Structures are given as structure tokens and as C-alpha cells.
Amino acid sequence: MSKLKIAIQKSGRLNEDSMKILKDVGISIDNGKDQLKASAKNFPLEVFYLRNGDIPQYLKDGVVDVAIIGENVLVEKGQDITIAEKLGFSSCKVSVAIPKGKSYNSIKDLDGKRIATSYPNTVNQFLKDNNVNANLHIINGSVEIAPNIGLADAIVDIVSSGSTLFKNNLKEVEVILKSEAILAVSPQISSENQAILNKLQFRLQSVLKARN
Ligand code: PRP
Ligand code: MG
């Protein structure tokens, strides 16, 4: 019997809520916490615990059929991946921030500036849409430190509670996009697994309705 392969964030903010929603739809997963792969006991589902940024490629290649990821990750590298369901948790923004003491009037102020980010495609699109030229510094984490160590004039990163910006003496000046957790689908899903996905989505929809 075929099983639907789902990717879940291995660790980090989405992991816990993703596991919770699977539990709420009545799927119980054998969870050796260190396992990178687990099976559901009562639903034809296999769970793969992966790094966020790797998930879009796995979807494109059809290595997994579906994934719970942040919409922002799809915007960054998920062309031709469809969104089956918005899941209503893990809301965040992708925003531009600058040091608190600096003045800011408009997007044009970013012209010629150095921007540190982990989301180069998203930032480049934003700059292009606004006719602004800036230099990107791509870093993979702790982006908010960049202005304080003189590496950048501004950053673009995820803002959730705002606490990381606050602690690093930064202020949000532009919101590029708003994001939440979504169920994303591989363009390569088989019809057999699509049928399993339909059942999963049906359950998800009732849980989401009840949560509202
Ligand atoms: C994420 C993100 C922001 C922060 C936003 O970083 O990159 O820095 O959370 O959340 P907040 O607004 O609630 O503070 P994370 O802690 O996951 O670490 P990383 O950037 O080093 O991966
Ligand atoms: Mg961070």
C-alpha cells in the first residue's frame, strides 16, 4: 500500500505546531525524537524531518509529496509548488529593519545600502519592484547581528514577536510579506498519493474550522 510522504521541519518554531496539527487530525506518529523518518500508526503517512530551506527542493524532486512549511520559504524558493491549505499557525512577517537611531523616510533610503539576509530572492524581487539598488550579504542565521558588527546597513529577516529586533536595537521599516504555515504539494505527486492527500485535507479542514 502506498504512503503519503510528508516533510516537517526538523527543529525550530514550526516543528511543534506541525506535530500538534497532525495529532489533532487523529494521526499518531511513532516518534523516536532523533529519527529523521517516522511512520503513522493509523494513517498511510510517512513523516520526514528536514531542514526548512531544503524542503522546497525535495518537493520539486518529488522526494516528498507534501510539506508543512512557512509560506515565506515557498516565496523564496518554491516556484511551481502549490499551496493546498493555509494552516493558520506560525504567523510571521518578512521585514526590512534598520538600526533604531537611523532615520528612514521611504524605500528609496535603501538605495546603495548593504542589506544582510537569508532570503536573497525575496529581497531582490522587492528591490526590483521598488526600483532600488542595494548590495546583498547572504548569511544563514543570526542576521540581526549584521548592522551591529558593521556588516550591513539594514537587514531583511523574519519578524514574529519582534523580540530579536528589539534586543539588537533594530526597528522594522518595511513589511515585505506576511506569512503563515501552509501545506505545500509536490508537482510530482502520484494519483494514488493524491487520494491520500485528499483524505488528509478533509480532516485538516474540519480541525481548522473548529479552531476558528
Ligand atoms: C528567527 C528569525 C528571526 C527571529 C524572529 O530566528 O530569523 O531572527 O526568529 O522571531 P522574533 O521576532 O519572535 O524574535 P531563529 O531564532 O530561528 O534563529 P536563526 O536566525 O539563527 O536561524
Ligand atoms: Mg534569526
Automatic annotation (TrEMBL):
Enzyme class: transferase
Primary localization: cytoplasm
Cofactor: Mg(2+)
The ATP phosphoribosyltransferase catalytic domain, residue ranges: 51-205
UniProt note on regulation of activity: Feedback inhibited by histidine.
Catalysed reactions listed for this entry: 1-(5-phospho-beta-D-ribosyl)-ATP + diphosphate = 5-phospho-alpha-D-ribose 1-diphosphate + ATP
Subcellular location: Cytoplasm
Molecular function, one GO term: ATP phosphoribosyltransferase activity
EC identifiers of the protein: 2.4.2.17
Keywords: Amino-acid biosynthesis, ATP-binding, Cytoplasm, Glycosyltransferase, Histidine biosynthesis, Magnesium, Metal-binding, Nucleotide-binding, Transferase
Described function: Catalyzes the condensation of ATP and 5-phosphoribose 1-diphosphate to form N'-(5'-phosphoribosyl)-ATP (PR-ATP). Has a crucial role in the pathway because the rate of histidine biosynthesis seems to be controlled primarily by regulation of HisG enzymatic activity.
Family named by the database record: Belongs to the ATP phosphoribosyltransferase family. Long subfamily.
Name assigned to this protein: ATP phosphoribosyltransferase
Organism: Winogradskyella poriferorum
Taxonomic classification: Bacteria, Pseudomonadati, Bacteroidota, Flavobacteriia, Flavobacteriales
